[in-house]
Design brief:
Elements: E1 7-15, E2 18-27, E3 32-37, H1 46-56, E4 60-69, E5 74-80, H2 82-99, H3 107-111, E6 117-123, H4 127-196, H5 205-218, H6 221-238, H7 245-265, H8 269-289
Parallel strand pairs: 3-4
Antiparallel strand pairs: 1-2, 2-4, 5-6
Helix pairs in contact: 1-4, 4-5, 4-6, 4-8, 6-7, 7-8
Family: Belongs to the YicC/YloC family.
Organism: Halobacillus salinarum
Domain Endoribonuclease YicC-like N-terminal: 2-156
Length: 293
């Protein structure tokens, strides 16, 4: 089954008066590379979230973004430092006596004194947030996987179509082989006649020897056989229920090598034209395979 490495999933939840947003994006990559961006108070869950992603995905560059809006899990309390307040009052009373100052020590005056009042924050139980975060990441992964599967079906259709085109060209190459030998034979006979000024029969031994030699040098039977085998492996691999991208990439490389060999052996115009066509289709296969998980 073909899956793309490109996908996107998003989920938002309201948790304890906060908005929790999760986004997961994936693009092509040779291996599985996971990057996370989490709020500071959720960093301890990073490895657990990565394990969850690894369970669902095998390849691709994956970016996980988690954002929190609001302070629902933080409880604020006003704290009075009575020790500092007592010292302030005592010192103020001492100053009045020492310098014979007038006036009352008021509440307004005390509230402006530094370090007497402070706001303290305390995090409430965050287990609800953690469970909701895992749920949001799971749903985002499900949506991303669905998108990768949908794109994978399009990829499979395109790859199958290109394999069929390659197979059709290979059949033309195979059908062309007997004609190529006959044309070799005729060209050699004409060249010998041109040099010797004598009529030469195509069945004469020296013509047959030259044809056999050229036919052996230009024989692409093995390459065609291997190419057909690679195509068969490619088609079977598309049906496997696992990560297949790297295997497909290897098969395409082998196909490209065989086609290069055919091109180097041939001096037939039609064969050369078909080799160019094969290279074009195989190159397109290679480009598409880079998207397969």
């Amino acid at each position: 089954m073909v899956k793309s490495m490109t996908g996107y999933g998003r989920k938002s939840l309201e948790v304890e008066g906060m908005q929790l947003h999760v986004e997961i994006r994936s693009v092509n990559h040779r291996f599985l590379d996971i990057s996370t961006k989490l709020p500071r108070n959720l960093l301890f869950l990073e490895e657990k979230l990565k394990r969850l992603i690894r369970y669902h995905l095998s390849r691709g560059r994956v970016d996980l973004y988690v954002t929190l809006e609001g302070q629902g899990l933080v409880k604020r309390t006003l704290h009075v430092d009575w020790n500092i307040a007592d010292q302030y009052i005592e010192r103020l009373v001492d100053m009045k006596k020492r310098y014979e100052l007038t006036g009352e020590i008021t509440v307004d005056m005390v509230t402006r004194l530094e370090h007497v009042f402070s706001v303290q924050e305390k995090e409430e139980d965050s287990s609800i947030l953690h469970s909701n975060l895992l749920q949001a990441v799971q749903e985002s992964l499900d949506r991303l996987s669905t998108m990768r599967s949908e794109e994978g079906r399009s990829l499979e259709a395109d790859l199958t179509s290109r394999c069929q085109k390659i197979s059709a060209v290979l059949q033309k190459l195979e059908d062309r082989r007997p004609s190529v030998v006959e044309e070799y034979k005729e060209r050699i006979r004409q060249r010998i006649e041109a040099y010797t000024k004598e009529e030469v029969l195509a069945e004469q031994s020296r013509v047959l020897q030259e044809v056999a030699l050229l036919a052996e040098k230009g024989d692409v039977t093995e390459e065609l056989t291997r190419l057909k085998s690679h195509l068969d492996q490619f088609s079977k691999t598309l049906q496997k229920q696992e990560s297949i991208g790297r295997r497909l990439d290897f098969i395409v490389q082998e196909m490209h090598r065989e086609v290069n060999t055919i091109g180097s052996k041939s001096n037939d115009n039609l064969v050369t034209e078909w080799v160019v066509e094969l290279k074009s289709e195989i190159e397109k296969l290679k480009e598409q395979v880079q998207n397969v998980e």
